[in-house]
UniProtKB/TrEMBL annotation:
It comes from Streptomyces alfalfae. This is DUF461 domain-containing protein. Residues 1-23 form the signal peptide. Transmembrane segments: none annotated. Pfam families: PCuAC (PF04314).
Length: 242
């Protein structure tokens, strides 16, 4: 593991506990909550405060799936604001923001509303989400990446956020869309039309032809032999599929 990855992992571990506590409290913008100053990605601009910002990537380094942005956004103002966009610098892409289920103030495809005197958690089960299209070339695990949050009244708020994979503490906060390995297609079954049937004994071919010659009576006395051969072939064909 590189030094940058180790530094990122150590710092990000501390962030994980802060994420869990903030999501659990779901509190408004009270003084006690706002006095917490964790050693992680946090910033205050005007009425807006952002804490615990992270970029969480796919657990598989070879995956081309999306990443997600996780953060807690506070609005200490007397009026609602909207989070219009989130951009990770260097990717040239904006995250797709989706409100939490039951968010009556935010339209399904509109900007995310941050109510006055309240906070909104982005990322994690049941919360709002911000999904960034695949950007593996620009977003590297262990790095500190600059993120820009754009608000309706406060404007652009920028901060550095760690990039971590969706592993260990961050599994429940990571992308829900994790690409699966392609399924192996079963091999085509043997063509039954090419197998001998019970009526094929009077037209022997290949090795069976030599044995059948001069023994027509014996072949007629044991009609089950071709059927057994066909069954064995079918079983062999079935075995290749496993």
């Amino acid at each position: 593991m590189s030094r940058s990855l180790r530094r990122g992992a150590i710092a990000a571990t501390a962030i994980a506990f802060s994420l869990a506590s903030l999501a659990a409290c779901g509190a408004g913008n009270n003084a006690e909550t706002l006095e917490v100053k964790p050693d992680n990605a946090a910033i205050s601009v005007g009425d807006i405060k952002i804490q615990n910002a992270l970029v969480i990537t796919q657990p598989d380094l070879k995956s081309k799936g999306p990443a997600v942005i996780s953060a807690t956004v506070f609005n200490s103002g007397s009026s609602d604001q909207t989070l219009d966009s989130i951009t990770v610098n260097g990717t040239g892409k904006k995250a797709e923001i989706t409100p939490a289920k039951g968010d009556a103030k935010t339209k399904a495809k509109g900007p995310l509303t941050i109510p006055a005197g309240e906070s909104v958690v982005i990322g994690g089960k049941g919360n709002a989400s911000a999904v960034l299209p695949s950007s593996r070339d620009s977003v590297k695990d262990g790095n500190a990446q600059r993120i820009t949050f754009s608000f309706s009244k406060t404007g652009d708020v920028r901060l550095q956020a760690f990039v971590v994979p969706a592993e260990s503490y961050f599994t429940e906060w990571g992308p829900t869309e994790v690409p699966k390995a392609p399924e192996t297609q079963p091999s085509a079954p043997a063509d039954a039309s090419g197998e001998p049937d019970a009526g094929a004994s009077d037209k022997p071919a290949g090795e069976n032809g030599g044995q059948a010659e001069g023994h027509e009576g014996e072949a007629g006395a044991d009609p089950s032999a071709p059927a057994d051969g066909g069954q064995a072939s079918a079983e062999a064909g079935t075995g290749t599929q496993h």
